[in-house]
């Protein structure tokens, strides 16, 4: 990455977002391959996307078969695109008899073994009912092979942490009688472990793999296609127009742009490198320190996993775990996602006012009418997806029609065709024809004809078709590591259900939280906490800490599943609603993306800005205070999630505006600026005053505001006394 001088600051030149994403996201960092092997891999990736695209629209295969085919593709590809040793991951290996196509024979053998072992269970599915509980030798051998290759595939694509957890739990299941104290259990034979993990739906072929194969893949593919046809660019340009003219303009553009782009990406790192390639250089030119510019973008970008309608893979898992519709998850996520971006916005605003930064000039802003005129068609696929989803159809069918709309808009490039396609889909939804052949066949014929016409019409048309094909390849590329991680999490969940260790851990956490609560109650004034309230608070605190620590070495999806399996029962015993417990774990798992020492999104931003990675991570974590505070708020005030039982608008408004007040106070305290520079004692008062706003109810919110009132009055007086507040440097 090169630099050049602009306005006294080093401005980062344009960089390839995909290359940066591959650099900082190990899950899509494929090793370079010889041309022939690269074509084979690309063909398999394209076939995987086509398989999921077809089944989403024309009907899923039987559950076990669908999951088995998905896993066969995923694991087989991992051994082709991830080297066994880190030092071999970045170099092209020459062809040799022991390395055909530049890939070691052992990797080819592991790929074949993974595919065969994955497809074995679907192959014997007719007899599976007679095998469960009484596996024969072949079953045990095939199950053992799959477990071994799955752990190795996960190590290569995700890292060592998740396989180590799985191995440790399998050892715990086998050596149960030798475990100490409360962890003692009868134990299981190896055939019993394999039986539970391989032949039942409680293990590898469980919910986690099913959700990735049924929902996640389709939405990842939709996000890639929507970005390719220009929807991401439209969002970023609109964000520039809306927020760019205000103080610290590029930083606010980063927030709005990341919020909009996050609607279709569902990935923190993809969001960071795509939006950041535009906003980080602009922030640096305006005068923001490099580490702060990178931190703003990376923190805002972590909202990609929590911003509807795409969100991250964990959101789709909630559908299965909670037994609710995806539209319910989307509604529940709206306000907490807004709070995350609001928290980042407040700190950026205070920092910009403190520094005295200007906004972008009219010449630096995009023309809104030209932006809309050139890109309005790209909104149609997102509108189609939401229309189908909220009409009561399955999430994967909504993704199918969203992907189809992306292809029509991207290849056709015709406003008339785009509007006609959208009108046809609206009519099909209204008449209930969306899944009927009388509608599907004409649409399929139009799609095939459009692709053929575009390919034959001109070189530009062929380029558009090729770009759609490449998007299918890249979409599958994003989903490979998630599939391996989900299958490995199946091992972890399977051992937990086999041994019952989850309930034992839950009991231990509750006991520890109760002891911590008792110690605090002994020194606090009476009435501040009840014993149960103190236990709940410390249980939430311990759960949050474990989520962040676990998320530092394990993908968000895996963190969510593990913690939900262990923590959700604990929170449920303390009266927390299931959807609240799931969202609490989900949000803290995502927070790990900007939590040092493994803040991958922050490090990607730091590389783009040429900043110190650790300093960037620390600043990003500070900017993410909204995401750290909000889970506690909606736990104590579940009305914020809208869809909880007993919802009232009064509770919603009190909880939401109380949370916003608390975020403003904390943002000002961390920024050392509100309406004017803040003194040390004023910052301390604001931090203490923000705490009551977490508690539900109007009285506690009013108490917090009353505590902060003296500081606000002093700020108003200081502002009036000195309208032109002297600018001070950012920390």
Short characterization:
Among the domains are: 21-188, no CATH class; 648-731, no CATH class. The chain contains 31 helices and two strands.
Task: List descriptors.
731 residues, mainly alpha, two-stranded antiparallel sheet, 31 helices, disordered N terminus, disordered C terminus
What would you note in describing this structure?
The protein is an all-alpha fold and 731 residues long. Among the domains are: 21-188, no CATH class; 648-731, no CATH class. It is built from 31 helices and two strands. A two-stranded antiparallel ribbon has the order 1-2. The radius of gyration is 26 Å and the shape is globular.
Q: Report how far the terminal alpha carbons are from each other.
A: 26 Å
Low-confidence stretches: 1-14, 725-731
User: So what's the overall shape?
Assistant: globular
DSSP strand tally: 2
Structural class: mainly alpha
Q: Taking strands numbered 1, 2, ... along the chain, how are they ordered across the largest sheet?
A: 1-2
Strand content: under 5%
Number of helices: 31
Computed over alpha carbons, the radius of gyration is: 26 Å
Helix content: over 70%
Biggest sheet, open or closed, and with what strands and sense?
2 strands, antiparallel
Average pLDDT, rounded to a whole number, is: 84
